[in-house]
Amino acid sequence: MASKLLRAVILGPPGSGKGTVCQRIAQNFGLQHLSSGRFLRENIKANTEVGDVAKQYIEKGRLVPDHVITRMMLSELENRQDQHWLLDGFPMTLVQAEALDRICDLDLVITLNIPFETLRDRLSRRWIHPPSGRVYNLDFNPPLVHGVDDVTGERLVQQEDDKPEAVNVRLRQYKEVAKPVVNLYKSRGVLHQFSGTDTDKIWPCVYTVFSNKITPIQSREAC
């Protein structure tokens, strides 16, 4: 078992179950779950320079540029040089992957391959609590009270790009952008691909791959 600090990345399209898998990895292996989406929300809420720039793009319905995301994430990683970590949502593009290369070598990259029909159904049933980023699915992770956040009692919303008419575009864009990143890590021998429609069935395979890299702090049955 390697004693070095583990550097891992999870890739997957919207609706692939990345959030659930990341939570389980963090709980079972003690990795810091570093989500680019969460950091963006925190920066926007705190009115940082990065947050203000990102907000301008998001409000126009545009993707936040590579250099903004990269600056934010590399800054976060500088503060975690002595920790095991798992990146979620970064790198999303080849430019971001090349920037990450300059500061570290990845040990493990996993990608979740979920059928298009499953992704479309999951996204169309997804509702969120914008201030916290909590995500609910009406089928397998519904709120305790319909339309209301479990923690705050505030109203849940469905994002415009989660509505059926926008999902096709989102998934096509992800595939085009992610393909070069997947191919890069595949060529380096660090990529592990998992396919299926049920996160609970994919999870034991993910657990095994991580177990070969880092000692678990609890068994997967504890999830």
Automatic annotation (TrEMBL):
InterPro entries xref list: Adenyl_kin_sub, Adenylat/UMP-CMP_kin, Adenylate_kinase_lid-dom, ADK_active_lid_dom_sf, AK3/Ak4_mitochondrial, AK4_mitochondrial, P-loop_NTPase
E.C. number: 2.7.4.10, 2.7.4.6
NCBIfam families: adk
UniProt enzyme class: transferase
Catalysed reaction equations from the record: dAMP + ATP = dADP + ADP; dTDP + GTP = dTTP + GDP; dCDP + ATP = dCTP + ADP; CDP + ATP = CTP + ADP
Source organism of this protein record: Pipistrellus nathusii (Nathusius' pipistrelle)
Adenylate kinase active site lid domain: residues covered: 126-161
Source organism superkingdom: Eukaryota
One Pfam family this sequence matches: ADK
The name this protein goes by in its record: Adenylate kinase 4, mitochondrial
Domain notes: Consists of three domains, a large central CORE domain and two small peripheral domains, NMPbind and LID, which undergo movements during catalysis. The LID domain closes over the site of phosphoryl transfer upon GTP/ATP binding. Assembling and dissambling the active center during each catalytic cycle provides an effective means to prevent GTP/ATP hydrolysis.
Family label: Belongs to the adenylate kinase family. AK3 subfamily.
Protein location: Mitochondrion matrix
Reported function: Broad-specificity mitochondrial nucleoside phosphate kinase involved in cellular nucleotide homeostasis by catalyzing nucleoside-phosphate interconversions. Similar to other adenylate kinases, preferentially catalyzes the phosphorylation of the nucleoside monophosphate AMP with ATP as phosphate donor to produce ADP. Phosphorylates only AMP when using GTP as phosphate donor. In vitro, can also catalyze the phosphorylation of CMP, dAMP and dCMP and use GTP as an alternate phosphate donor.
Region spans: LID: 125-162
CDD domains: ADK
Binding-site residues, a ribonucleoside 5'-triphosphate: 15-20, 126, 135-136, 199
Region feature NMPbind, mapped onto this chain: 35-64
Positions contributing to AMP binding: 36, 41, 62-64, 96, 170
Primary gene name: AK4
UniProt main location, coarse: mitochondrion
Subunit text: Monomer.
Keywords: Acetylation, ATP-binding, GTP-binding, Kinase, Mitochondrion, Nucleotide-binding, Transferase
